[in-house]
Amino acid sequence: MKVVLTNHEPGLSPSSEELARVILARIGLEPRKTGSTEKMHSVFVEMYERSKMANKEKKPEAAVMTVEEMGIFAGITRQTMYDYLKRWLDLQLINKTSYIKDGKVIIGYKLNGSTLDSAFEKAMQMVSNNLQTTQKYVQELQKLLKNEKIKQTVNEKRVEENV
Which residues contact 94 (CB under 8 A, 6 or more apart)? Predict the structure, then answer.
């Protein structure tokens, strides 16, 4: 998993479209290839709209988007959308789900929460957990380096005493 955080900032009085783009860019979900698609934010916004509608109508399946639908909103092929989905899933912003419609199993993705805010909080928690684990590694490294230095100094003194 590779999370890329950036410092993109919205302009003055941003539109919802601009702010959605900035959010996706800041958490590394915008396409990394220049010119690949300018509409990835549309998927994010549509997932939110579907989530709202699903909660209002009490139909959880309404919140689910298939990869084909996501690709249409993003203006890319289904296969390319699969490539982007990995990052969305890694950040836990969305989750994979399925439901049955007309006797067929429909597999798709939905926000990992009932609102953009709750889904984003889960992504924040994932990043925070990663940083906390890394902090433990840093503390362990610092302790190991200190102990190795002490051990080296003790060994050097023993060598000097034996000479």
Answer: 47, 85, 88, 109, 110, 111, 112, 119
Tracing tokens 């939905």 back to the chain, one arrives at: 110
Q: Which residue has the tokens 């953009």?
A: 116
pLDDT digits (tens, 9 = 90+) for 75-125: 999 998 998 999 999 999 999 999 888 888 889 999 999 899 999 999 999
Q: Token pair of 53, please?
A: 């509608």
Which residue in the block uniquely carries the two structure tokens 């410092």? 7
Report the alpha-carbon distance of residue 97 to residue 90 in Å, rounded. Answer: 15
The whole-model pTM stands at: 0.79
**Whole-angstrom Cα Rg for the chain:** 23
Q: Which amino acid is at 105?
A: V
